[in-house]
Design a protein that fits this description.
Keywords: Repeat. The protein is mainly beta. The strands form three sheets. Strands 5-4-6-9 form a four-stranded antiparallel β-sheet, with no helix packed on it. A three-stranded antiparallel β-sheet has the order 2-1-3, with no helix packed on it. It has a three-stranded antiparallel β-sheet with strand order 8-7-10, with no helix packed on it. The longest helix has 5 residues.
């Protein structure tokens, strides 16, 4: 029903999950670190093979319902450098739409977003909420290039 920084205080391993309401990001490390995956209402009996994880859920973060406008600035380089584009809707290919080969920082003004490693909302992902993200590399995403993004809409709940 809320965020949990360390699932081991409740159980030693978590290999399946049922979301009865709302949306969550789950992580394969404690303290909201490591690989992330988005779960919405439904059953995830075999999420490990679905995501290619060799581990299990270690922490989770509840995504609050949001019904406002969406606005985010993406930047080609760290610390808000290089090309900048303001986004207000989903983008299935950052490269095709904005001619940006890299997206290394962002500023989320409104809404909750998912950034994806590959075009067309595929690959590893990262959850962003309102705030400044000066360096995806410093956040632990050094080897990743984010190539698509989408809004987490209230219709997903």
């Amino acid at each position: 029903m809320s965020d949990c920084a360390d699932m081991s205080s409740y159980m030693s391993r978590c290999h399946s999950c049922r979301v009865e309401s709302g949306c969550f990001m789950v992580y394969d490390r404690p303290n909201y670190m490591g690989n992330q995956y988005f779960f919405r209402r439904g059953e995830y009996a075999d999420y490990m093979s679905m995501m290619g994880w060799r581990d299990y859920i270690r922490s989770c973060r509840m995504i609050p319902m949001y019904r406002g406008s969406y606005r985010m600035r993406i930047y080609e380089r760290e610390n808000f450098g290089g090309q900048m584009h303001e986004c207000m809707d989903d983008c299935d290919s950052i490269m095709e739409r904005y001619r940006m080969s890299d997206c290394m920082s962002s500023h989320v003004m409104d809404g909750h977003w998912l950034m994806y490693e590959q075009p067309h909302y595929r690959g590893r992902m990262m959850y962003l909420w309102p705030g400044e993200y000066r360096s995806f590399r410093d956040m632990g995403y050094g080897g990743m290039r984010f190539m698509s993004m989408r809004r987490i809409m209230d219709s997903w709940y």
